[in-house]
Amino acid sequence: MMQNVHDDVTATATSPAQPLVIGGLIAAVVAGAATAAIAAVGELAGISLVVGGTPIPVPGFGVLTVIFSAVGLVLALVLARSVRRPRTVFVRTTVVLTVLSLVPDVLVDAAPATRVLLMMTHVVAAAIVVPAIARRLSA
Prior knowledge:
Elements: H1 2-13, H2 18-44, E1 50-51, E2 54-55, H3 58-82, H4 86-107, H5 112-134
Antiparallel strand pairs: 1-2
Helix pairs in contact: 2-3, 2-5, 3-4, 3-5, 4-5
């Protein structure tokens, strides 16, 4: 009887989404660190982090990356439960969203080098997070 209780507790403690969530959160933190590092290196190289007259603090890059990566993780969890080919839908959707995320960077009131730096952070974050999440989704 005790063995069955233990098996039931273990089965409920480990969900099929757990590898996706853990992998996605790790990727989000790695991407956050990478984008903050890019911003810091850019600033050290003399690239302004002023956008629309307001400076973006280096840690802000990391924080926003983690937040939007978590949104992507939620999208992946929803797709994993609601579509037949979640990996394909996730990758296509996130590629489109990444491209769309570059539009404000092109239009923002900032120096050209700042715009490029902003776009680079979006691409690097996507290059880290999207594959990490996608490989944990069923094809």
